[in-house]
Amino acid sequence: MEISETVVRVDPSFLQEVNQRSGQLIQLCYHCHKCTAGCPVAFAMDYGPDRVLRMIQFGLKEQVLGSSAIWICASCETCGTRCPNEIDIARIMDALRQITVEEGLPTKERNVLLFHKLFLSIVKRLGRMHEASLMALYMPLSRNLFSYIPIGVKMIVKGKIPLLPHRIKGSDEVKKIFERSG
Amino acid sequence: MRYLYFPGCTLSTKAKGFAASGEASARALGIDLVELSQWNCCGATFPLATDNLLALVAPTRILLNAQKEGNHLVALCSICYHVLKRTNRLLREETDKREKLNLFIEEEYRGEVRVFHLLELLREEIGFEELSERVQKRLQGLRVAPYYGCLLLRPFQEIGLDDPEEPRILDDLLASLGCEVVEFSHKTECCGSYLAMNSSEVTRELSYAILHSALASGAQAVVTSCPLCHFNLDYRQGEMAAHYPGFTQIPVLYFTQLLGLALGIESETFGLADHHVDPRPLLASKGLK
């Protein structure tokens, strides 16, 4: 029999892996939907948080790691605050993002990852954040060249974004920390 | 009283008025905020996966520097406070992670420094009743919506500043300044945070819902302690006006700006002119500037 390309692949070890990396016990979820009901960004996700947990229980690793939900989660911790089983779902979402990056899998929301990477590259160089540099890199690389210009220009005019960065005392030490971490 | 102070990156750039009004208000109340002599970015997110220790190096380094100069560290920015407080708890309570981090930074830090938010200092060291007596200019007739957002409150087990569902600290502060504090439905809802960069329509939607609920409760201004919330709530109002018919713009202020005004401090450095929605006409209409 020929296997169709849409075959569902199940990874039975996925639940354990996510439990371990998030420090949570996902089996405790009985799908009351309280997390999704209170999640402020559920409307923008492909799967709400409770469905992500159910998919992890099922071992649907590819679908979970390929979802937009794990990148749309803003870590606001509303779900964890309200979960009757005290599951800290934001920790699970962060563990899922980390597994995706480590395994080099495609990310549904590539610009979120791009933003995090650029943020770190600036801290590596300067020791602190510098918004003008971040935006100068982010806009072309995220292919959002024009959407931030009106707000950016207004903020520069109002003196909210200094054009020149400040380099901290000890920025070499910060750079060394990044280098040692690989 | 002398307290070590961590301004953080944003208070040195986008939110200078937050820093200036906070520092001046604290000084007027006898709290001397002394900036750490050396500091780096806190990383702006607390890592939630159990094995991501590397993201803890930046805040650990800040706490370690603080320990060399004192035993307290005060933050104004909700994000910095959140990251420093959670990192500090982890270093105090999770021995194995502490050991690894100490090995990595080649120094010994065990979470001894106490991390404060300025709101906490006002509540615990001054007290809101006492503060009310020190007010020079009561903010009479100013109807404000205290917006807490996420990071100041959650997760409660680690932050422990106030009730995560029905917080009071900002309400009580503003009431002590003479403001009329309104109850509104979205005081602890998320503004969309850094999704502003990737999915600006999601942030716009969330921030609009917050402002809309404040307006519906009759607020004339929204008050926050987070520069990222401030950006999403204030600077996106131009787009909101274009996107949601009938939307009325509303000024968004830092709590320190109102505190400083109430203490009778000259507001020139408070950055009131930097806001997208200019709060000065409202303040002037109440006899404040």
Count of DSSP H/I helices of chain B: 15
The biggest sheet of chain A, with number of strands, parallel, antiparallel or mixed sense and barrel status, is: none
Helix content of chain B: 40-55%
Tell me roughly what share of residues is in helical segments of chain A.
40-55%
* Uncertain ranges of chain A: none
In percent terms, what proportion of residues of chain A is strand? under 5%
**Proper CATH architecture of the largest domain in chain B:** 3-Layer(aba) Sandwich
Report the end-to-end length of chain A measured between terminal Cα atoms: 46 Å
How many beta strands in the DSSP annotation of chain B? 8
Rg over alpha carbons of chain A: 20 Å
CATH superfamily of the largest domain in chain A: Alpha-helical ferredoxin
Mean pLDDT metric of chain B: 96
- State the end-to-end CA separation of chain B: 28 Å
What is the class of the largest domain in chain B in the CATH system? Alpha Beta
Q: Remind me, CATH topology of the largest domain in chain B?
A: Rossmann fold
Rg for CA atoms of chain B: 19 Å
Which sequence of SSEs, written as H and E, runs from N to C of chain B? EHHEHEHHEHHEHHEHHEHHEHH
Give the total of domains of chain B: 2
Shape designation of chain A = elongated
What is the tally of beta strands of chain A? 0
Multimeric status of the protein = heterodimer
Structural summary, described in words:
The complex is a heterodimer of chains A (182) and B (289). With 182 residues, chain A is mainly alpha-helical. Helix content of chain A is 55%, strand content 0%. Chain A has helices at 14-22, 34-38, 49-58, 61-65, 69-72, 78-82, 89-102, 110-126, 131-141, 149-157, 171-181. In chain A, helix 1 (14-22) crosses helix 7 and helix 8 runs antiparallel to helix 9. The longest helix of chain A has 17 residues, at 110-126. Chain B is of the alpha/beta class. In chain B, 47% of the residues lie in helices and 10% in strands. Chain B is built from 15 helices and eight strands. Chain B is globular and about 55 Å long. The two termini of chain B are 28 Å apart. The mean pLDDT of chain B is 96. Chains A and B meet through helix 1, helix 6, helix 7, helix 8 and helix 10 of A and helix 1, helix 3, helix 10 and helix 11 of B.
